[in-house]
Amino acid sequence: MTQDAGSAEKRRSIMVNAYDGAAATGLGAADRELIARRERVLGRPYRLFYREPVHAVRAAGAHLFDASGADFLDAYNNVPAVGHSNPRVQAAVAAQLGTLNTHTRYLTDGVIDYAERLTALFPAPLSQAVFACTGSEAVDLALRIARRVTGGEGIIITRNAYHGTTSAAAAISPSLGPGNEIPETVALVDAPDSVRGPGGDAAGAAFAQQVEAAIADFAARGIPFAGMIVDSVLSSDGLRLAPLGFLARAAEVVRAAGGLYIADEVQPGFGRTGSWWGFERHGLLPDLAVLGKPMGNGIPISAVIGSPELFDRFGAEVRYFNTFGGNPVSVAAANAVLDEIEERGLLAHAERAGERLASGLREIASSAGDGRVAEVRGAGLFLGVEYVDAAGAPDPAAALAVVTGLRERRILVSASGTFENVLKIRPPLVFDDADTERFLDGFAAVSADLGG
């Protein structure tokens, strides 16, 4: 398993759907000047989406608005899970900010109340939480725990994974691009491919065999094994959801070799798939779970969830401190997110809305009759549409054309996957029937244009 396999695909992964000033012919003078100022002060590492970037000035629910008042349907942004500018989150943050905001080295009520509430959503023995500010920090901590507890170093990931941007998280994020070096202590395995690979039990068996081979390769090279971390929906690999149970099978192999299995729930967690956590779909009990992004609806908060046994073993030798991880204001936002999910029935809504959206996408793709859509797949309000050419090969150009066409109709999605040929659709969980109809109408129009 070479670390530079698929370098061309990885190169695309940092360029797909990115702003290109030379191609942006429709931008007004004010936006061009703002982009020039941005590039001067923020530098080259930052990327803007779309040939013509969206200049948002306010947002509500599943909608963004520009300075002219034009309404953009946000079908991509999973961070504001309970909606942009959510009133309950706003009120909770404002009230707490006017009362107390300090670090977790002082005794406060909110972080304890929230930790009890959050961990109650996980199966035993996952009953403790350590808070941080970002998903990357939480991934970094989970890796430290796994390596300290097992005494190992080797980590297995999927080939186009994304887990974050700290040094440790970037080292297990090949999707960051060809200049992002993946060390020899990290092994890459291919995600199951429901379009080109075997299906059913054979796919699960093949994935488990790759994990076994990676562990054996670590042993042959004298690298002690620490564990495996997988985004529970493999979103950067193209939203790989099947066969159900393949992650549980891989976790069994990992544990048999003395490693820990870490479920990265930063993208699928908090109801995105129609259940609280993405790992639940696979009948899987992870050793650690990592949370982030939608946890505070945009207010920085993340967590590692684990068992007292693992945390005790780590904490006996290592002092972990995160100045504002789990601060009272972030905890207030996170509590409000749970209130919204529970009181508005957003788990069931995500499942129903996702089924309706997926059904509509399949109907439109089938009606097109051109075979460009190889598969529509999804879980709750996390959906992927995979594009192929006439020979059945991945077609990133088609996916990008659809992304661009939808952007022209003020509907926002992106593309991902090993070949960047999969539409990535993951709107806020408050995506309603009118939003769904608008999205499907836009998708139908773009699909017709693509076929023509």
Automatic annotation (TrEMBL):
Annotated keywords: Aminotransferase, Pyridoxal phosphate, Transferase
InterPro entries reported for this sequence: Aminotrans_3, Aminotrans_3_PPA_site, PyrdxlP-dep_Trfase, PyrdxlP-dep_Trfase_major, PyrdxlP-dep_Trfase_small
PROSITE patterns listed in its UniProt record: AA_TRANSFER_CLASS_3 (PS00600)
Any single Pfam family the record assigns to this protein: Aminotran_3
GO MF annotation list: pyridoxal phosphate binding; transaminase activity
Domain of life: Bacteria
Transmembrane regions: none
Family under the similarity heading: Belongs to the class-III pyridoxal-phosphate-dependent aminotransferase family.
Name of this chain's protein: 4-aminobutyrate aminotransferase-like enzyme
Record organism: Leucobacter luti
